[in-house]
Amino acid sequence: MIRQEAPRQRGGDARGFAIAAAALAVALVLPAALNTYYVRILTGIFLFGILASAWNLIGGYTGYPDFGGAAFLGIGAYTTGILMVRAHLPFPAALPAGCVLAAAAAAAMGALLLRLRGHYFAIATLGFMLVLRQLTANLEITGGGSGMNLPPASDFKIFYYWMLAGLVLAVLAGFALPRTRAGYAIAAIRENQDAAQVLGIEPLPYKILAYAANAFLFAAAGGIYAYWLTFIEPLSVFNLDFTVQAVVMALFGGPGTVFGPVVGAVVLKTLDVTLTNVSLFLHNVFFGALVCALVIFAPRGLAELFQASPGRSRWAALRASVRRALQENRV
Amino acid sequence: MSPPVQIALQNAVNGLLIGGTYATVGLGMSLVWGVLNVINIAHGAFVMLGAYTTYWLFTLYGIDPFAALPLAGAALFVLGYGLQRVVINQVIRASFLITFLLTFGFELLITNIALSVWTADVRAITTVYSGRSLHLGPVIVPAIRLMTLAAALLVTVLLHLLMSRTRLGSAIRATASDQEAARLMGIPIGHVYAVTFAIALATAGIAGGLAGMSFPIYPAMGANYTFIGFVVCVLGGLGSVAGALVGGLIFGLLTTYAAGWLGPNYDYIVAFSALILVLLVRPAGLFGRAARFRG
User: Fold this and answer.
1) pLDDT for B67-82, tens place per residue?
2) How far A26 CA sits from the closest chain B CA (Å)?
3) Nearest C-alpha of chain B: how many angstroms from A119?
4) Which CATH architecture group holds B3-281?
């Protein structure tokens, strides 16, 4: 699986958190200064920041290539929607229910799926997402294939703050996980599961913990997304694009790091929005080409690409790491 | 014959007939997975390209769709060789997540380019013999489905002969079982990988033509076939031609019976349940033994 650096030194952490705290302070006051369009764009970036950070818990730290994250996004969206529409619960009560349900579903499915490894795990999680999509389209309580309308909110800015809160939670989870006892077990599982087992680490409970935390956050993003868009249908939330974008953003920014996935989400989503303004067709083709280029030239993410070695310029470091990436994986 | 028996029999025939197309979809995926250790997310997109190639040859030039199959296969063979040689070989030794994402990038590129070139219109290949059928006692056999099954069996047999009887087949199997040893024996690995991917895409192209004769053709059809390919590989056991055939036939029966008993919208649910069950109980597939290509 993917390799990543060990949790950074305390000095690096302090700097990272100083920057993060400053960014958070700016983010809190920003909606007052921006027009509707930009608030909307930022809300979208936060959404993908949550997803990328959530995927990082299972895909980055634990090394399990989950491709079914949209399953939990869908559970969060539909649970929130059903509780608001059919049970007339307020949003702040409906959202946590969706998150808890998704985490429970992840624990149950994880108990089965996390026994699989590599390709098989990836496919099984993808299949789980497709099954939930079909089930949702067949059920009556979800509105079936024609989807479901949620009550509109009075002020669009509340979604910005909900997403921001979700993002803070996701980053904190990414910070906390590797520093707990479970984090050490998870790192051991990622590096060599068989060896970890010999050392007396029973892997499954730790993997389930990371998987459920990932599901909780995907569901949080999904619930807020549903309320934000006020309309959901099986195809729009059980959508593989959410998962793959999260994977690519985490990979781009640096998997297994606290802030990497968020940086990946900010950079790639900004690019994506810019290109969508240029051409609706182009942005999908561009994203495809970007994914190809990224895995060929920078399989360890952007951070490593620019890591200068002593005595060399950034440009030389970039060329060297691209050359290294190309040489070590080709036949 | 009582109606329930008759329906069960008709479902069995329908399932086996369409199973041939599914087997052809699974063949290429199994080959790439078993030899290159790559899960090709774009496999369905290549099936889509094969379907469009067959469709345009038929619609624009009046070429019979069965005669167009080898042409679709040849076109995708060339595309496959180039893609593997120029792009995939650069990352072939990277972790599986990397090649998984690379083929996802292909899928996005191909599907979106197809969408802009051919639009989202749904198309169908309708020949003069599309409506004909044979009546074997109580069972109705649509002529075109019977012909697609025959073509699928022919492709399977040819691929089996290629893998088991030719020098190229030996080279591919040797590379699959031990890449380093194969290299030391003088096998040009980069070329063998490229030919393997090319053969896989040729079968995907033919599968696309076959699918286009039974199902609608549109740019986003690929994702569905990628999932079918997975399930066929897992059911039959990874890395054998016979496994893909058996997996395809089982998948055809499974989805046909599921549609008959539960309604048309339960195919993913049934297919996924079968997939999980097989993965947990017999991870090597119902008939597979090891994860390398045996031909």
Assistant:
1) 999 999 999 999 999 9
2) 34
3) 7
4) Orthogonal Bundle (1.10)
